[in-house]
Amino acid sequence: MKSKIATTLPPLDDNALIVVLDITDDQTISGDIIGNLEAKDSGLAVNCTYYENIKNLKALARAEGANLIKITEHKLPDGWSTCHRLKATIYNVNQPKSYETQIEWRADRKLTWDDFKGEPDLENFPNALALTNSGFGYESGISMFKQGEVFVQSVFYNNSSWVLPEGRNDYVLRHEQIHFDITEIYSRKLRKALADSKVTSDDMLRAKVIFDQIFQELQKRQDKYDRETKHGDKKHTQENWEAIVELELEKYALYRAPD
Fold it and tell me: Organism's domain of life (predicted)?
């Protein structure tokens, strides 16, 4: 890691929101530039997946009082390096949430209606008051020294999640939160399945087979949730689902994402 800091600010709290904008994001950023960060390969780096380097950049940004990271360069692993090499500009902005394009699932980070930034799609979802687009994915580390770890993330996508004005109430929001929670349950199931199968970066074909199976299970579960609750209209059934989801999150608590 390398940094060039132009402005010194107090460090942020450990729980402070740090927003990351990828290299394709063209949002206009209004805030103070704190400096530049670089995650590069020293030639012997081993923990340098995109997931790990973003986590490291967040830690550096937090220490410098920055709450927004804009990726300005991203070199993929190639014949010269097994690392994702990143350059970024870090900022301190007044309302970091307004820049979010995706949200990683956290128990202490519940969805709000401000997170739903997409345009309503009534052509494909004519009876919906709101729609949550969430999913999970995985990434493996590559190392010449050891077997790489497989990382799994559960994510809510702001710009393709939406709500109609008449749907902006706490009850509908609870229904949408459960959709995201169900995604998190299946991301934990994926971590468990990968761990039980002892899958590492040496066997990503097997990882894909496991991923595809659990992703199909997730889609069926999401459909079942909407079908049985009638998109939240059946309040008693909705409450039952909320209780079931809470129990399942606890059941797979061992497989939640590391802090």
Answer: Bacteria
